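Morning - IPE inputs below, output right after.
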Amino acid sequence: MSFLDQIDNIKLPQHIAIIMDGNGRWAKQKGKLRVFGHQNGVKAVREALEGCVKANIKFLTLYAFSAENWNRPKLEVMALMELLVTSLKKEIKTFQENGVRLNVIGDISKLPSNAQKKLQETIEATKENTHCTLTLALSYSSRQEIVDAARNLAKQVKEGKLQAEDINDALFSANLYTQNLPDPDLLIRTSGELRISNFLLWQIAYSELCFLDKMWPEFTKEDLFKSIVDYQQRERRFGKTSEQL
Ligand code: IPE
Ligand code: IPE
Ligand code: MG
């Protein structure tokens, strides 16, 4: 039986975020180069996306490349950028067939120009799709995002457009790259690492965390469905007592 059948459609997470980790180690275990792991990671992206579409998840955010990942060997970085472009070319069909709208967060200006162009084209071509919003975090740093928001708010105060006293949670959220996304309900990380690695620090304040031992290239729809079932068995108390819920 599929874990899909165990999902309670009334308690669905609205937004799932995933730290896709373990491509390099997976390849190494097979005696291959790290790039081989990244290539196979693309299949897992398709699994995650199709799983979300099947389970009716409205927002999927994937950590694809961090600001810190620029420090990797140049060849690996180049291979990842190439893979992004070829995958976008290939997957546009999947996006259209499944009603997926593409969105990006991060410092896109750092990406090679062909990648920027392909991203813009794909965002434009899928902007009317409503079934699921796929957000790719690229050249993304959560601390930088928070710094940008603070700077933006400070500028508005300086220009007299905003009172410092009026800055609150909601206004701060509205100044993040994720302004159009709800906070993730569920955050999944593969590869057994137990850390957040500068991903959505503000937004995951009350997310449920799910760490899987599998390496990313092995991630399947069933893993996604199982994580959703796990999530649904948790009690989200938001500071209250169990009795108050
Ligand atoms: C995740 O896999 C993909 C990216 C960070 C781009 P890794 O490349 O981090 O694989 P490991 O963690 O070294 O195994
Ligand atoms: C986090 O993975 C970034 C992405 C998944 C894109 P890393 O593999 O770069 O994380 P650390 O550096 O090991 O924490
Ligand atoms: Mg890693």
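Note: The domain at 12-142+184-231 is CATH 3.40.1180.10 (Undecaprenyl pyrophosphate synthetase).

O.
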